[in-house]
């Protein structure tokens, strides 16, 4: 019985990861938010400075201006930050 439960849980986790990847950045960010996973992302600031950040996503929403935004705990800075999803250049679960 235990083996069956582990197999089902693993299949469910793989299905969620595949669904998130199919939905692109937003799907992956939502998946990480729901599961408590951290993500590693390439990010370009407004001034053009590029960085790599590991963050713990908390919320994804659309601003009044129509931009998708991410609220996350930035592990590099040790603070909560807001990122524009359109400035994320690369994204993967950590």
What is the secondary structure topology, with strand pairs?
Blueprint: H1 2-22, H2 24-35, E1 39-44, E2 50-62, E3 68-74, E4 79-84, E5 88-93
Antiparallel strand pairs: 1-2, 1-5, 2-3, 3-4
- Percent helix, as a range, is 25-40%
User: What's the gyration radius in Å?
Assistant: 15 Å
Let me know the average pLDDT: 84
Number of helices: 2
The strands making up the biggest β-sheet line up spatially as 4-3-2-1-5
Q: By helix and strand content, what is the structural category?
A: alpha+beta
| Succession of helices and strands | HHEEEEE
Main pleated sheet = 5 strands, antiparallel
Q: How far apart are the termini? A: 31 Å
Regions with little confidence, pLDDT below 50 for 5+ residues:
none
Which range does the strand content fall in? 35-45%
Shape: globular
| Tally of strands | 5
Describe this structure in words.
The protein is 35% helix and 40% strand. Helix 1 (2-22) runs antiparallel to helix 2. With 94 residues, the chain is an alpha+beta fold. A five-stranded antiparallel β-sheet has the order 4-3-2-1-5. It has helices at residues 2-22, 24-35, and strands at 39-44, 50-62, 68-74, 79-84, 88-93. It is globular. Strand 1 and strand 2 (50-62) form a beta hairpin. It starts with a helix and ends with a strand.
